[in-house]
Amino acid sequence: xxxxxxxxxxxxxxxxxxxxxxxxxxxxxxxxxxxxxxxxxxxxxxxxxxxxxxxxxxxxxxxxxxxxxxxxxxxxxxxxxxxxxxxxxxxxxxxxxxxxxxxxxxxxxxxxxxxxxxxxxxxxxxxxxxxxxxxxxxxxxxxxxxxxxxxxxxxxxxxxxxxxxxxxxxxxxxxxxxxxxxxxxxxxxxxxxxxxxxxxxxxxxxxxxxxxxxxxxxxxxxxxxxxxxxxxxxxxxxxxxxxxxxxxxxxxxx
Length: 254
Hints:
Blueprint: H1 7-16, E1 18-21, H2 27-40, E2 48-52, H3 59-62, H4 71-78, E3 83-92, E4 114-117, E5 120-123, E6 126-131, E7 141-144, H5 159-162, E8 181-185, E9 190-193, E10 201-209, H6 230-235
Antiparallel strand pairs: 1-8, 2-3, 3-10, 4-5, 6-8, 6-10, 7-9
């Protein structure tokens, strides 16, 4: 298992505020997650469907909490006392809309920040989005303004750009394939473009905070899960500024 983050990946994340990690999930994992989602989401209607806590949908979704191909990035960018803050999924059908451009270190969201010092990246609330369907160029879905996690002109983004009435060159919709994961800091200006593809968008968002902070106003209950690993229990610990027992460490056999 990868135990460290490649220097070029650090460069990309620091430059853009997000990074796409390809082939995080195997085809078997993607098929398994989609099959469970088919059952769980069949009673939810609409072109835009948003449901909380897919991590409780069984072991395949529970395993995403500390996926071994993702944990090195979380530890590199948030530190060893990272915690899962909340998770949900977004399903969109053609014509579905949601989510103007938002986010950024606006001074009002205490957990939306990004820092670099002496070779170390640290970020507040950070999102890992797992995709079980692709988003090709022009399909819509996740979009962002790369580099705005460090901008000094956050309030200068025009309203018509935030509302997608105009899409200038600096608004980017990253392409992803089924099985990819996209990691971004909430200090990045981002949003959800209208979905234009014939196939359904399926994205599972697992959001993490540094160990001392929380964005959500509720915490995880380990009793909602079965057969949690010790590491997953540590990830679910509530925030604390003192000595904490939930320090996460990567192991060769994890």
